[in-house]
What we know:
With 438 residues, the chain is mainly alpha-helical. The chain contains 17 helices and no strands. α1 (24-53) packs antiparallel against α2 (58-83), α2 runs antiparallel to α8 and α9 (267-288) packs across α12. The longest helix is centred in the middle third of the chain and has 33 residues, at 232-264.
Amino acid sequence: MTSAAIPPPARTSPPARRPSWAGRNYTLLTAAAIVTNLGSQGALIAAAFAVLSSGGDAGDVGLVAAARTVPLVLFLLVGGALADRLPRHRVMVAANTLNFLSQGAFALLVLTGDPRLWQMMVLTALGGVGQAFFGPASEGMLMSSVSGAEAGRAFAFYRMAMHGAGIGGAALGGALIAAFGPGWVLAIDAAAFAVAGALRAFLDVSHIPARSAGGGMVSDLREGWREFVTRPWLWAIVVQFAVVNAVVAAAEAVYGPLVARDELGGPGPWGLALAAFGAGTVAGAFLMMRWKPRRLLLAGSLCVFPLALPSAALAVPLPVAGLAAVMLLTGVSIEIFGVSWMTALNQEIPEEKLSRVSAYDWLGSIAMVPVATALAGPAQNAVGRTSALWGCSALIVLLTAAVLCVPDVRRLTRRGEPVALAGPAASADAEGALGRLG
């Protein structure tokens, strides 16, 4: 009697430890963004309190905030054009190096002496130059690395990790400022830029096709401009956020620290409020990993209305618990908009134009920020802090209502695949790579 051969047991593949879109680039960029956000959230508070500790007032806080944004506005378009010509990771590393040097000098200045206003403005301006080149390169790296139906989920997961770091960074930064002063928090931020730049140096850009020489910088910028202005949904929302971002920046960079100092007990409660906002962004990103609204921009734009709430809460002012609750809700809402916006850009903009379109997006979105932050102090002197904060809330509500009148904003729908990714190599790598500024 012969026995039948017993087949060996079927081998089962080990469960995947991470999703298909979470490849090498994704891991590096996520780690870098976490490190950067741990430092930068505290540094935002530290810069304002460094000015106040040196004897500055509301106007001086606004001038330092504006000093970062002015060079950001001036160099963004150049940064976008270069990022569409050069390997994007090299642009990102160079920008992180500049941020490390400028923030380190700022920290040293605060720790070792009596910083002058002009010195803080110059060093902050250098940080703005770095961001001008980093932002479009990072945005292009992100968009060129993700495609298909999972793009929104990938963006949401990345943002959840990035903003999660902001929770600890804001709370820890406020506590460290209260205990040791702003200088050490600025030093931590400088170190974070160094670590993040080292991680980004290992990014793989081989999946991105080589760029043709083209017709020069001006020609590249014109091509990006045509891509921008021919899409009503794109320029309408950028115009909206030109004002929305400006008044939010005035409220959070200038009025928020002042209200915290005068009404809430100092930097600790304001750091807690910013941490609540970070928690909201994590919750919003978690929601967007599961929710895929069909009308991307309609859903996102409706969620801009709650951005009016923090200014109103500061105007009252609400106690710390109420302010934190408002900031939590705002974080959820803006994250829904952010993921929807990124998904729309990924879906609609060709890969080879991503950084230039991103530069126009950034430029429009921040162009009025230095004006608003510089005028925040004079506005407070002219009409009072409470009236200025209520005005910020009103502008956000009116502009958001106006942008919903644009048909393309209401009608743009989600598709399974983006309009254009450059070449099969990009499509293959899109399964395992993701990048985002941070």
